[in-house]
Design a protein that fits this description.
The complex is a heterodimer of chains A (496) and B (307). Chain A has 496 residues and is an alpha/beta fold. Chain A is built from 16 helices and 20 strands. Chain A folds into 2 domains: 258 residues, Aldehyde Dehydrogenase, Chain A, domain 1; 180 residues, Aldehyde Dehydrogenase, Chain A, domain 2 (3-Layer(aba) Sandwich), CATH 3.40.309. Helix content of chain B is 44%, strand content 14%. The chains are: A alpha/beta (496), B alpha/beta (307).
Chain lengths: 496, 307
């Protein structure tokens, strides 16, 4: 009965009614053939002449050639940031720094469509997400931190606040522009200068942001953007003049960075992987919990460090809930990321697609049952259908390792204690979700869950005023809110 | 609201009633309203909206002539184009039923009558059922009654339930639609609960509104009811129909409702037997949109008949 709109394969389409494909135009975006490094306010070639290609993961077509920064280039960028720190940024009154941040925010809003389309082209995420989530939030981060720039002594009273100086920041490919905003806005608001490295598969929106930074006349060298892969990243991490590091990405790389930073006693914040439990109690608003679970795992193809990737559902409602979930998954629209009706876009890279595939196969080998909807996938590009693995045990690899793709792992529990025990039994601790109509149970769980972010009766909600960060192998330090600011100031009393 | 249960009239088994989360429900409804429809599919959607329409007049000033004219429009919405289907039903007061039966004879337009102390429901159960029996005797195919919100909101769900049971018995062969008057219920939890109560008591259709208060049908309220219908079908294997009424004036709004029903309940609900839109002015907007598909340009309101 409840499977009526899916399992027999009928849809609105069979009824003579079809959704129009509403493809966002790419005419606004002017992608150059070649991009240089953004150092000291100018776009320059890499000293080695090396470059790499960035492509559209939904078609595998190359988009542009991007310069690969060598350690000499990183050195140039760090020097520029150092000079600019002493010459302009350190002495500039907070109110003046705020003006620049406000201008960046406004320019992002004005060019939001252009940024959104470019983000979708380079990263594969659906346009409705880059348009409705990434861009508004990126602008909001600049607005929010602009407001703090001249009020830092009120945030941390009675302290001798001081910026760190040159900060090295390395960001991932899942929210390329948004992560740049999360990193740059607080660093600049607090009076630091920055060398930022975007991920090698998604450098284009950071380079467009460099254009905006030029447009707003930010003093040269305050923000430097160097593109490249792991080698470029480690040149930043190892550079002796970098005074603080901030990294968002995999736990594996985070550990390497920590090893290096600890030797020099360098302040460090890490935002790493996750394996978030999404816990559904039997008294939850079930129809909405389904939507929450869908959003929790399939948002951005599951390329989200805080994705609700482990569904823990109370045994009394489990069969029914999973049945409803599968019915709902049949309705998801997978395809062209530029189509406004698309719910799930392309997997970001070939390497990531292989990793997802390999982990799901491992799950099946270990005895999990797999559910995939009947949707067809485009022929070219990197695609993975929304997938649910049931019959998963706590000891299975898919229940422990981060898949970072549109794959949900389902387990059941009987009591709140058991839910809590399973939820916390992971090396990670970034986020968690709770669905119940009983307020006291929400509080009881939230007090005991070892996760940095806990959502109740919703999931994947972000706001610049709210600190975000993890426990255990999900990292340390917070981004957003006053706690996020603290990381970019000496003597703030917060973790930095 | 915690999970609760209601006893199903037919089998005596208990039906679970799930709570509703307002924020997520409204977000889902808003996201469904952004789906865009292919131009080539528009005609199918518009014709479907007409086939599912209950063309309504519920005014104290209704006369036999007015009803006859409504019925004519119901049978042939566009006199200049015979491809436009007739609507599902006309919806009128009991006093007008025999006029409507006469005027729709030989067509497949059904006659629906409001009854049972419409629109408040605040009469004795004897008076309510007598009103229903009268409308049925006059030839009504469908009866639209209201939920006793007074009893329901006062916590006397039993009375609200029993009145629907008695109304269903009074209907005999006629189909029973139960109007929840969602704008008076105060929360989605109550809408969900009232939907389950009406279905458990034997409603063939659940319906949003009387059209007599400003707070009428909205997309999230209909989504809430559709989720209840889906849940009831899962628990009992019985498919109940759904009717959105009040405040639906444009073809675009009607399209949004079709999307919500199609994506929540599936295509077998997209037919006049399972889905209705109650409206008075909507039909003309749909007709204007159809004319536009034929001619490529919008004609004015004077190119469709007022009634």
């Amino acid at each position: 009965m409840g499977n009526s709109n899916s399992k027999d394969g009928s849809s609105l389409k069979d009824f003579g009614i079809e959704y129009a494909s509403a493809i966002e135009s790419t005419s606004l975006v002017n992608i150059k053939d070649k991009y240089g490094l953004f150092i000291d306010g100018n776009f320059v070639d890499s000293s080695s002449g090396k470059s790499f290609k960035t492509l559209d993961p939904s078609t595998e077509k190359p988009l542009a050639i991007v310069a690969e920064a060598s350690s000499d280039d990183v050195d140039r960028a760090v020097s520029a940031a150092g000079v600019s720190y002493e010459k302009y940024w350190k002495r500039m009154p907070g109110a003046d720094r705020a003006r620049y941040l406000f201008r960046i925010a406004r320019h992002l809003q004005e060019r939001a469509r252009e940024f959104a389309v470019l983000e979708t082209l380079d990263g594969g995420k659906p346009i409705k997400e880059s348009r409705d989530v990434d861009l508004p939030l990126a602008a909001a981060h600049f607005f929010y931190h602009a407001g703090w720039a001249d009020k830092l002594e009120y945030a941390f009273p009675q302290r001798k606040l001081e910026p760190h100086g040159v900060i090295g920041q390395i960001i991932p490919w899942n929210f390329p522009l948004l992560m740049a905003a999360w990193k740059l806005a607080p660093a600049l608001a607090c009076g630091n200068t920055v060398v930022l490295k975007p991920a090698e598969t998604t450098p284009l929106t950071a380079l467009l942001l460099a254009e905006v930074i030029r447009e707003v006349d930010l003093p040269p060298g305050v923000v430097n953007i160097v593109t490249g892969a792991g080698g470029t990243g480690s040149a930043i991490v190892e550079h002796p003049e970098v005074k603080k590091l901030a990294f968002t990405g995999s736990t594996e790389v985070g550990k390497l960075i920590q090893r290096s930073a600890v030797k020099r006693n360098l302040p460090l914040t890490l935002e790493l992987g996750g394996k978030a439990p999404h816990i559904i109690f039997e008294d939850a608003a079930l129809d909405q919990a389904i939507e929450g679970v869908i959003n929790g795992i399939f948002f951005n193809q599951g390329h989200v460090c805080c994705a609700g990737s482990r569904l823990l559902v109370q045994e009394s409602i489990a069969d029914n809930f999973i049945d409803r979930l599968q019915t709902r998954i049949e309705l998801l629209r997978v395809g062209n990321p530029l189509d406004k009706n698309t719910d799930i876009g392309a997997i970001n890279s070939k390497a990531q697609l292989e990793r997802i595939d390999q982990l799901v196969k491992a799950g099946i080998d270990e005895g999990a049952e797999v559910f995939k909807p009947s949707c067809s996938l485009p022929e070219n590009g990197y695609w993975y259908p929304p997938t649910v693995l049931t019959g998963v045990q706590q000891s299975h690899r898919v229940a422990r390792e981060e898949i970072f793709g549109p794959v949900l792992v389902v387990q059941t529990f009987r009591t709140p204690e058991e839910a809590l025990e399973k939820a916390n039994n992971t090396p990670y601790g970034l986020s968690a979700g709770i669905w119940t109509e009983k307020g006291s149970l929400i509080h009881w769980m939230a007090e005991r869950l070892r996760a940095g972010v806990i959502w109740a009766n919703t999931f994947n909600k972000f706001d610049p005023t709210s600190p975000f960060g993890g426990y255990k192998e999900s990292g340390f330090g917070r981004e957003g809110g006053m706690q996020g600011l603290a990381a970019y100031l000496k003597n703030s009393g917060g973790r930095s | 609201m915690p999970t609760s249960t209601i006893t199903f009239r037919e089998t005596g088994s208990s039906i679970k009633v799930t709570p509703v989360d307002e924020v997520s429900l409204e977000a889902r409804a808003a996201s469904l309203a952004t789906r865009s429809i292919k131009t080539t599919s528009k005609r199918a959607a518009l014709n479907l909206a007409i086939r599912c329409m209950d063309l309504t007049t519920l005014e104290g000033a209704d006369t036999p002539e007015k009803v006859a004219s409504l019925c004519q429009k119901a049978k042939r919405p566009d006199p200049s184009n015979h491809d436009v289907p007739s609507v599902a039903a006309v919806c009128i007061y009991p006093e007008m039923v025999h006029h409507a039966v006469e005027a729709t004879e030989g067509s497949n337009v059904k006659v629906a009558s409001v009854a049972g102390a419409f629109p408040s429901g605040l009469s004795t159960i004897e008076a309510r059922t007598a009103d229903i029996s009268d409308a049925v005797k006059r030839g009504a195919d469908e009866i639209d009654i209201v939920l006793n919100r007074s009893a329901f909101l006062a916590g006397d769900e039993q009375r609200a339930f029993e009145e629907i049971v008695a109304s269903k018995d009074a209907c005999g062969e006629a189909h029973l639609k139960v109007i929840l008057e969602v704008g008076e219920l105060g929360s989605y939890d109550k809408i969900r609960q009232a939907s389950m109560l009406a279905m458990a008591a034997g409603a063939d259709f659940i319906k949003t509104s009387t059209g007599k208060i400003p707070q009428a049908s909205t997309l999230p309220r209909v989504l809430c009811m559709a989720e209840a219908v889906r849940d009831f079908a899962q628990q009992t294997n019985i498919s109940v129909g759904i009717k959105a009424a009040g405040g639906i004036r444009t073809a675009k709004q009607a399209w949004h409702y079709l999307v919500v029903i199609g994506e929540t309940l599936g295509t077998e609900w997209l037919c006049p037997e399972m889905f209705r839109i109650g409206a008075s002015s909507l039909l003309n907007d749909v007709l204007l949109q159809l004319k536009r598909l034929d001619s490529g340009s919008y004609s004015g309101p004077d190119y469709v008949t007022v009634d």
